[in-house]
Amino acid sequence: MNFKLILNIALHLLRARLKQTIVAAVGVTFGIAMFITLVSFMNGMNDLLDGLMLNRTPHVRLYNEIKPSENQPISFSEKYKNKTNFISSVKPKDRGKAIYNCKSIIHALKQDKRIIDVAPKVTTPVFFNSGTIEISGVINGIDVLAEEKLFKISDYIIEGKVPDLLQNNSIIIGKGLADKMLLKKGDIIKVTTSKGNLASLKIVGISQVGIADIDDSMSYTSLVTAQKLLGEPTNYITDIQVKTYDITTAPALAKEFKAKFDLDTIDYQTTNSQFETGSTIRSIISYAVGIVLLIVAGFGIYNILNMMIFEKMDSIAILKATGFSGNDVKWIFISLSMVIGITGGLFGLLFGFIFSHIIDVIPFNTAALPTIKTFPINYNPLFYGIGITFAMITTFIAGLFPALKASRIDPVEIIRGK
């Protein structure tokens, strides 16, 4: 089989029906361009939402949860321990929020090669005092450098800087709380803990996550300041936050750490199951719409090649009469289809990138997300690889059936009919 000759004949047929060829290629180009644009935008949106919630959530969190004792006194009775016992109105047991032996646990976690780093935290409910008014909220006492390394909280600071928390008795409050109490950077805010401890903290920054419930109640201070506020020693820790190199291992690590350290654990998938479901659904929709566009373009190529076969019956008969086999004719039309697919696909990648870039520079200003300036786009090369691959597969299948039909044409009947 002379592939060079076959390709030359295919290109000659394409030039003979140039308008139809351009229409088919434009169909593929449009399908690929819309697929790239849609998938890039939807994945960029998923990345944005993940950044708001999932990326700020530890992959594994270790803490002490208030819950009923798993083993009730009746379970230790020789008489009843092997029986099924029903117990009602079981009161929860408060083991205390503090994680005992936390320094050795943190040291062990940092030695684990699966873990990027560990960030200890003290979380406590407080009241923010404004005259006689008390507004409930939460203070997160954080290891400033570790928290910034793992969770990039500076991305959500609209006033001040995260390292300012290293100053004594300093705090970063949410924008919602600042608006309610008419506070700004440099002001002093009074805080009362659940134990009745009162402290005055200097506001060194204001954060805005874009989620109203968080911005109205959440605040940050240093680990040392939070411990002083609660009147606890320097080894008082309520949470240990872990980030791993491979996020998919988080559920298994949570179970492992629970058994190893005798602590309650929760992984990011359990914490943010609703967000993950939403991201998955958006990705499925974007891929489904893009694939439908490419399939529609494939039907266009199929129809055009079918028409071309009817119009080129004489040419096919002459080719067969001069020694071309049915297989040669089949590959002529498959080559013709693949040329349309590759040309349309490459232009589709180009226009898909251009459309994505246009969306990427469109201003996106919203008070809820002050750090986001333009619409999010994900320029993952994988999307472009999927687009051109699917374009080639679609056009190959669209050209295969007309090509098989052309290969079965009997030249004697065509010439006799003429």
Q: How is this structure best described in words?
A:
- There is one protein chain.
- The chain is of the alpha+beta class.
- It folds into two domains: 3-53 and 275-417, no CATH class; 57-77 and 93-269, no CATH class.
- 52% of the residues lie in helices and 17% in strands.
- The chain has a six-stranded mixed beta barrel, surrounded by four helices.
- A hairpin with a 2-residue loop joins β2 (115-130) and β3.
- α2 packs antiparallel against α10 and α10 packs parallel to α13 (381-407).
- The mean pLDDT is 81.
Structure keywords:
418 residues, 2 domains, 14 helices, 10 strands, elongated
Uncertain spans, ≥5 residues at pLDDT below 50?
none
Cα separation of the termini? 29 Å
Structural class: alpha+beta
Largest sheet: 6 strands, mixed, barrel
Could you say which overall geometry the principal axes of the C-alpha atoms support?
Answer: elongated
Rg over alpha carbons: 33 Å
- Strand content range: 15-25%
Number of strands: 10
Please estimate the helix content: 40-55%
Number of folding domains?
Answer: 2
- Taking strands numbered 1, 2, ... along the chain, how are they ordered across the largest sheet? 2-3-8-5-7-6
Mean pLDDT: 81
Total count of helical runs of at least 4 residues? 14
- Oligomeric state as shown: single chain
Q: Helices and strands, in N-to-C order? A: HHEHEEHEEHEEHEHEHEHHHHHH
